[in-house]
Write a structure and sequence with these properties.
Elements lengths: L2 H11 L2 H10 L6 H4 L3 E6 L7 H8 L2 H4 L3 E6 L2 H10 L4 E2 L2 H9 L4 E8 L5 E4 L13 E4 L5 H12 L9 E4 L3 H10 L4 E4 L1 H9 L3 E5 L8 E7 H6 L1 H20 L1 H12 L3 H14 L12 H10 L15 H8 L3
Helix pairs in contact: 2-6, 4-12, 4-13, 7-15, 9-10, 12-16
Length: about 325
C-alpha cells in the first residue's frame, strides 16, 4: 500500500488529530521509544483490571529484570494508534483500537491479549429492577467502538433491546465520568468496572449483572507497529516476557495480587473474590485470543471504511514474539 492510499484509509476511520499524527510520523524524529532499546513505552486507557498485567509487571519489577526502563502512559484509546505509528510508543493497550486499525490496513498488530471478555457491569438507578425498564432511557458508555459500547449493545441485544432504537447510548468518557453521570442522574444506567460498581453501590445504585457474559471481545492486551516488530524485536520480546510473567501470577497466585487490586485498581477486599472470579472466566493464560473473538471489532471497522484493503481476521495478530517470550520463561 502506498503512503497516500494508507492515509486515505486512515482518514476514514480515525479523527483528524490521528491523521495529523500520521503525517508528522512521515518525518523521522527522535523519541525515547525510537532511540533506546532498553526503554519501553506502553500506553493504556486507564488503570483498571483490563490493563492490570502491565501495571503488575511494573509493580513487581519484571521490566527491570528484563533490563528495561518502563513508562506507562495513560492516553485516550484513539490516540494510542497514533503513538504507535509515530514511534513514540512501543505498545498500545487498547486492543479494540488496535484490532480496528489493523482491520483496515493500518500497519499495527496484536501481539498479546489478556482477556476475551470484559468484567464490566450494567449498573442502574435503584428503581430499575429489570433491564426492560431501560427502554427509552439512556445509559453511559465511554465511546463508540469501545469495549463498553460492544458490551452494552450485546447485553441489550440479548434481552431483545436495540441500542439507538430502544435505549440511547451516551458517550461520556472514562469510568469516573460514567460513574458521575449515573450518580448525578444524567443517565439511568452505566457500564462500570468492578471498582466503579462498588462506588456506585455505596451511592445507592444497583448492579443488574455482569455484561461480559454476553459478549466475547478483545479486552486488554498489547499491540505494536509492524515497523517496531521489524526494528526492535528483541526489546518487544523482553517486554512481553515481563508482562506474561505478570499474567501468570494473576492466574496462579491469588494472594500475591490481592493488595495490588486494592491499592492500584480500587477493588477492595470485600469485592476482591467477586472480581477475581469474574477475571478468571475471561483470562487468556497464554496471552493469545482466538480470531473468532476479534470478529466484532473487525467487522465494525471494515463497515465504517470506504474500500478498505483486503485484510483477513487471522492477519490482525502476530503471536511469534509472545511465543518466543513464553518459551524462555522458567
Amino acid at each position: 500500500m502506498t503512503i497516500d492510499s494508507f492515509r486515505r484509509h486512515v482518514i476514514i476511520i480515525v479523527p483528524f488529530f490521528i491523521w495529523l499524527a500520521l503525517i508528522i510520523a512521515g518525518s523521522p524524529r527522535p523519541s525515547a521509544a525510537q532511540t533506546d532499546k532498553n526503554y519501553v513505552v506502553i500506553t493504556v486507557s486507564t488503570k483498571v483490571l483490563s490493563s492490570a498485567p502491565v501495571w503488575l509487571a511494573e509493580r513487581f519489577c519484571y521490566f527491570k529484570k528484563e533490563g528495561l526502563e518502563s513508562r506507562i502512559v495513560v492516553m485516550r484509546s484513539d490516540l494510542q494508534i497514533a503513538s504507535l505509528i509515530s514511534g513514540d510508543a512501543d505498545f498500545a493497550g487498547s486492543l479494540s483500537s488496535v484490532t480496528k486499525a489493523a482491520a483496515v490496513g493500518i500497519p499495527v498488530k496484536i501481539v498479546m491479549s489478556f482477556f476475551n471478555g470484559s468484567f464490566f457491569y450494567l449498573v442502574t438507578k435503584p428503581d430499575i429492577t429489570d433491564i426492560k425498564m431501560l427502554r427509552k432511557k439512556t445509559i453511559a458508555i465511554s465511546r463508540y467502538g469501545s469495549a463498553t459500547d460492544f458490551d452494552a449493545r450485546e447485553t441489550l441485544k440479548h434481552f431483545s433491546l436495540e441500542a439507538g432504537r430502544d435505549v440511547t447510548l451516551l458517550t461520556v468518557g472514562g469510568g469516573t465520568n460514567r460513574l458521575a453521570s449515573l450518580v448525578s442522574g444524567r443517565v439511568v444506567g452505566a457500564i462500570l468496572t468492578e471498582g466503579e460498581k462498588e462506588q456506585a453501590e455505596k451511592a445507592g445504585m444497583k448492579a443488574l449483572f455482569s455484561t461480559g457474559q454476553f459478549n466475547r471481545q478483545p479486552v486488554g492486551g498489547l499491540g505494536t507497529s509492524i515497523e517496531k516488530i521489524r526494528t526492535n524485536r528483541d526489546g518487544l520480546v523482553r517486554s512481553l516476557r515481563a508482562v506474561y510473567r505478570a499474567l501468570t501470577v494473576m492466574k496462579n497466585d491469588k494472594n500475591a495480587i490481592k493488595g495490588f487490586f486494592d491499592k492500584d485498581l480500587a477493588i477492595s477486599a470485600n469485592q476482591f473474590d467477586s472480581a477475581y472470579e469474574s477475571m478468571l472466566k475471561v483470562l487468556l493464560p497464554d496471552g493469545e485470543i482466538a480470531a473468532s473473538d476479534l470478529v466484532a471489532p473487525y467487522e465494525d471497522a471494515r463497515k465504517a471504511a470506504t474500500k478498505p484493503p483486503p485484510v483477513a481476521v487471522d492477519e490482525l495478530s502476530d503471536w511469534s514474539l509472545l511465543r518466543g517470550a513464553r518459551a524462555s520463561v522458567k
